[in-house]
């Protein structure tokens, strides 16, 4: 049974980034306005996410990391109007299976926080009072300690550095879509990236991408019967060096504020963007942009991959058509 748990957990928790993503989502679901992420040895020795959210009630603690426990939905109908990032109760339990987890938490009602040490099946091994203020801090140590092959994957310095960069890209995505959020990322006790609270998406973009890039982006907002598209796209004919990148890391696509990887939407954005430029200048580049597509929660299925980065849109054709129409109205022509 232990082996089965280890294997299924390693599909939710595939990397340091996926740990950070799950913990970040929990912090945001808890209403946090401030989150600090700390990595030690690229996150392999320790990854810690601390928030100022609502905390975990003492009564929920024994089950918080039990598989399929979630405080977020209570019926199938809730799934149809999902407004939280989490809903399956799988993350915390999965992380426990592949690392050593402690959770320190305090709700408003409690005077002192409690630190829980969890075992590999998510049960509480011990608990003690702690000095942490309100909110929750989850510490994940010795990631993949029991999965030498997975650990081996991160043995090259290049892979490990790439992992920290991916964590930063992920945090940037959350920073942009949640402007009011204060965020820091520290690696080996050095703050490598931070973002203060911002008033709106534009200021959040400036804080993450820089003012000169944002000066070359155009706010877009389009309401349709079934969806709303909004964001910031490169101005027609904008300076390529400021508004494109050789990787897709700065092409921030969200569906209902969830950072997603949607190949077909990305392809469409690239085609229309690069078609404006003569020659091959933009052929192999990705536009720097923010696009958030808001659809009715019931037309979105987040359960496609264990890590929730791929989603299934029931009205995908309509969404693609709307994105295409937006791009045509902005850039003025159909690429071949
Ligand atoms: P899910 O997010 O799908 O509910 P998780 O395994 O990620 O499942 O978390 C299990 C439960 O633990 C959540 O439903 C929530 O009640 C609690 N929890 C986890 N992290 C936090 C946090 N940072 N703040 C408050 N509650 C949390
Ligand atoms: Mg969760």
TrEMBL record:
Source domain of life: Eukaryota
Leader sequence segment: none
Family, per entry: Belongs to the DNA mismatch repair MutL/HexB family.
Protein name: PMS1 homolog 1, mismatch repair system component
Residues of the full protein shown: 6 to 341 of 860
């Amino acid at each position: 049974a232990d082996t089965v748990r280890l294997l299924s957990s390693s599909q939710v928790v595939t990397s340091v980034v996926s740990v950070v993503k799950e913990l970040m989502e929990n912090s945001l679901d808890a209403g946090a306005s401030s989150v600090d992420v700390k990595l030690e040895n690229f996150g392999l020795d320790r990854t810690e996410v601390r928030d100022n959210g609502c905390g975990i009630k003492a009564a929920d603690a024994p089950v918080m990391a039990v598989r399929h426990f979630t405080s977020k939905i209570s019926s199938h109908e809730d799934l149809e109007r999902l407004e939280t990032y989490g809903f399956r109760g799988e993350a915390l339990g999965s992380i426990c299976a592949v690392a050593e987890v402690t959770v320190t938490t305090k709700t408003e009602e409690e005077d002192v926080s409690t630190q829980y040490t969890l075992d590999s099946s998510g049960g509480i091994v011990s608990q003690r009072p702690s000095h942490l203020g309100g909110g929750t801090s989850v510490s994940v140590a010795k990631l993949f300690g029991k999965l030498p092959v997975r650990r081996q994957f991160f043995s090259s310095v290049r892979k490990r550095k790439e992992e920290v960069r991916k964590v930063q890209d992920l945090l940037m995505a959350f920073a942009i879509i949640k402007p009011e959020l204060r965020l820091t990322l520290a690696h080996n006790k050095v703050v490598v990236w931070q973002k203060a609270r911002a008033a709106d998406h534009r200021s959040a973009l400036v804080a993450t991408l820089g003012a000169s890039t944002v000066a070359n982006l155009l706010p877009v907002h389009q309401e349709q019967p079934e969806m709303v598209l909004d964001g910031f796209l490169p101005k027609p004919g904008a300076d390529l060096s400021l508004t494109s990148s050789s990787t897709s890391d700065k092409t921030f696509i969200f569906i209902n504020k969830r950072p997603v990887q949607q190949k077909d939407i990305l392809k469409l954005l690239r085609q229309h963007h690069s078609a404006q430029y003569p020659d091959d200048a933009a052929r192999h580049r990705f536009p720097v942009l923010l696009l958030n597509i808001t659809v009715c929660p019931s037309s979105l299925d987040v359960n496609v991959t264990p890590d929730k980065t791929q989603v299934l849109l029931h009205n995908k054709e309509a969404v693609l058509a709307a994105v295409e129409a937006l791009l045509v109205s902005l850039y003025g022509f159909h690429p071949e």
